Amino acid sequence: MGVTIHDVAAHAGVSVATASRALSGQRGVRQANRDKVVAAARELGYEPNVVAASLRSRTTHTIGMVVPRIGNPFFATLVEEVEKQLQGGNRSLLLANSDYQPEVERRQVQALLDRRVDALLLIPCHRERSEEALAAAAARIPVVQLDLRVDGFDASWVGVDNEAGMRELLGHLDARRTVFVGAEPTDSSAQSRLDGYRRAGAGDEVLLGDFSKEWGEKAAGRLLSEGLPEAVVCGNDVIALGVLAEFARRGVRVPQEVRVTGFDDIPYAELGQPALTTIRQPQAEIAAEAVRVLHDRLAGVETTSRRTAITPALVARSSG
Amino acid sequence: MGVTIHDVAAHAGVSVATASRALSGQRGVRQANRDKVVAAARELGYEPNVVAASLRSRTTHTIGMVVPRIGNPFFATLVEEVEKQLQGGNRSLLLANSDYQPEVERRQVQALLDRRVDALLLIPCHRERSEEALAAAAARIPVVQLDLRVDGFDASWVGVDNEAGMRELLGHLDARRTVFVGAEPTDSSAQSRLDGYRRAGAGDEVLLGDFSKEWGEKAAGRLLSEGLPEAVVCGNDVIALGVLAEFARRGVRVPQEVRVTGFDDIPYAELGQPALTTIRQPQAEIAAEAVRVLHDRLAGVETTSRRTAITPALVARSSG
DNA sequence: TTGAAAGCGCTAACAC
DNA sequence: GTGTTAGCGCTTTCAA
Which UniProt keyword terms apply here (chains A, B) (predicted)? Predict the structure, then answer.
């Protein structure tokens, strides 16, 4: 705090320009000078002011990320994987939570843009109402949508083929009567899982709430009073764990009396009793691909938007 | 992008200084001018460059936060609560993961300091080896340790009284023979929970690994072959869920044959079967207090370090 | 390969 | 209350 590149340059007996070039590893600096500068920097305990560098170079080496709910282990794991991908490349992650509210999301995206993040990873919390935030960002910097997406907006996206996952699940269940317990199709996954369920010809019995364990518990109660199907197909693992908990409390045996499935394969899916049958989303792969797309865009290699859908795999456990 | 405060000032017919004052809500600007400036800014689509503002004002309105593992729902919830606290105050959160590695943690803290965060929330992953990172940060900016702490370092801390929690738990169990399944005391919670267990006179049977479900599963297997105690006291919920899962797989009935307890009360603690008896950490309170301490420090109100230990409460469920 | 000098866009003294 | 001006610390022309 206090020692600037001027001090380093003076100490090394070169100009600030040379010091700057040496410190940022540019070529075109004589090796002897390079060494002197590096030594001086170390000796003086020089800590570059990246804010100043950003102002001039117009790049912050920071990537913004907005998630609907960091408390959901699925998103937390995604964040962790993105962080891991960024480790090598000297970029940091500026994280924000939208709390599933498009208004909050818009403000958070704006705050990130104000901070001049180089690029944005967005998990848009709403299929339609996230468009404004996405558009605002996409107009300025490279943006990749992660997991969720905005309907009909031309921007890169990396996620999972939810419909294929749902087909796989229903094929595995091969049940006579199922009920889908999902979330109102406000986000794209809620929508495509519901679509997948319906298109697979599993029938039209659907209960829609939100992606919470509380909703799962409530829905389970309702199913109990209306008559249990052969299988309950849940929109994600969190709902399924709520369903399982309520069934356990009411003394309903799973899978003997009713089978239950989830979606995502969060770490807690396999810990319950019974362990949850679900569809695994490969978060490491999704994160790696998203970061790759972003880097390509930042490097100017790629300019068009790219959509990548990974086919998720069934994880059959005892609940279904 | 392109329109600067000079443009706004010109458009409003005032100087840049007045424009700056009006835009940042300082008093000492005539209302008429204030209105003109705001109108001009809106009209031109002015987006302030906070990087430039930061360079000059030496404040970034950004708070850094380093957590050991964002994938652990306990930490994820803490992050979420901190985010919530920050919402009002126009500060953003720069998040980093240390992966429980002091080396990584040190690098992450340095990256945050390089970005000139105004303050740091640190959950030090190691009782001793996190000291270097903590000291580096504390020398430059206000720092508050959250949940975990570094031994014998004079810095603010907000967390829970782990020993009290452990006493409460053991009092509730009132068991003849217990075994503690915890983590090697590399972080302060692992240490103080172990201490609490021992000091409560619960005996000396301890199995130490790390805070993972895999360790819980392994420890459960070991207990099974060595003879079950009356109760298994786990170092946190994640371990306890692993223990529970393994017992379930091996057909051991909980709590009939053995009781199991956790620590933290993560959202998944109550979802398992049986629901987990545990100690609740009030994350919202911890986050609120930490942010308050930080704000006081940033406002210059408080200069000495402050340690706040919240007494956690027992949540008795069916597992113990 | 190097150095001098001009800003990046803003805020904060300072003068009026 | 307002304007002028001098930087914040760095990178990047532009000349040499």
Answer: DNA-binding, Repressor, Transcription, Transcription regulation
